[in-house]
Amino acid sequence: MGLGFVINDNHYRLLNKDIPLQPILLEPNTSRTIASAFSQRRALMPFWGQEPLEAHAWPTAWQNINQTPLANDSLAYVHIPFCANRCVFCGFYKNAWKEEHGTPYVDRLIAELQHAAANRVAGGSIAAVYLGGGTPTALSGPDLARLLRALQHYLPLTDDCEITVEGRISHFDRAKIDACLEAGANRFSIGVQTFHTPLRRHLGRKHGGEEAAAYLAALAGGQEAVVVADLMFGLPGQDEAIWANDLDVALGLGLDGIDVYAFNLFPGLPIQRMLEKGVFPPMSDLPVQLGFYQMALDRLAAAGWQQLSNSHFGSGQGRERNRYNLAIKSGHSCLAFGSGAGGSHAGYAYAIEADLERYLNARAPAIARVSRADPSQHWVAALQGSIEIGRIDASLLPAACLPLLQNWQQQGLITQFKDSLWSITPLARFWAPSMARALVDAA
């Protein structure tokens, strides 16, 4: 999703800067200490630190958003809220995909883009666009192509803009791939989760692991676009051998980027009911997940991959920039389009109507929520951005946060890098969302 904090602190320019991480040697018992540092993984939720505005104030806020020039290196997020089936681990499912949905939805998106361009003041640029969902590749090739061309026509994209299309193997055939490439897409993010066929079946994935691996190898082999795959660790029924194989398979496919995400069991997911009924074995506890994260760090480093963020790694080829994901977490302005999308700009965060029927029938823009940033929390976006690349700048933090840093140093979670800048130790980056949440709570 494209929800981010609205304060953009230029102290961290994440889009093109490579900040090398120094190797850190830990005491033998530090891993055990890190494993028990937090009782749960918690993160800052969208709209945290925002004051919701009453509906009567939205027109004025929206005018302010449109009349404030974009900063350079801003972002755009486009939401495609359709899925052919619901994966049992996913909390983003909203609308069942039907072919007749595609063209009217893209028509509405393009009208929204046109309306926004006509009302937005000139200035600034967009360095990364992300088509997410849902399943963007559920759309037909012609609809994907005309949407991508409309984005380039109506948005002030930089010449080297990162344009990502998120997709699933089931929907993304060669014709659609070519349509996206010809229309300007230069990055594909493919959800895989695991290559273990029995586990994939339980999760709701149609294709087996070998088929998924072959697909990704072919997609990456053409070098036509950056190709990124998502893996998930800590899934119920996933042991060390399965996870090791997932990593080894992914590393052998010629990919440009690999995401490694810890599985989070959110209330209401189908997988929760399946766990309760015994369909899956009990999920891994946090120390086991930490071990999986350590395995990923070790294998990716041994293969010469670079850690670009807490969960994202780029190959030694250097093609992967990870622009959108880094910038959204550091508070860069983000324009949002499509039912269920969220954006931020000019001190405001906003959400587009998530109900598909209401979105399609509303006049553009179909705003469902507007919030205003709390000026006293101006440091939070910079904090999130720095933590994402393994750093904490103590000079940005309120004094009430400093005892936490001292405690974390004693636990081996952080080490002083330079002056007020601290490095999060490699294994402790597993806890990065909890660390950000704890610092904000302490303030």
TrEMBL record:
Keywords associated with the record: Iron, Iron-sulfur, Metal-binding, Methyltransferase, S-adenosyl-L-methionine, Transferase
Pfam families registered for this protein in UniProt: Radical_SAM (PF04055)
- Give an example GO biological process: porphyrin-containing compound biosynthetic process
What does this protein need as cofactor? [4Fe-4S] cluster
Domain Radical SAM core: where?
Answer: 67-298
Cited InterPro entries:
Aldolase_TIM, Coproporphyrinogen-III_oxidase, Elp3/MiaA/NifB-like_rSAM, HutW, rSAM, rSAM_sf
Instruction: Please list every transmembrane segment annotated in the UniProt record, as residue ranges.
Output: none
Q: Name one GO molecular function term.
A: 4 iron, 4 sulfur cluster binding
- By its UniProt entry, which Gene3D superfamilies does this protein fall under? Aldolase class I (3.20.20.70)
One GO cellular component term noted in the UniProt record for this chain = cytoplasm
| PANTHER family found in the cross-reference section | COPROPORPHYRINIGEN III OXIDASE, COPROPORPHYRINOGEN III OXIDASE
Protein name (record): Heme anaerobic degradation radical SAM methyltransferase ChuW/HutW
Its source organism is Iodobacter ciconiae
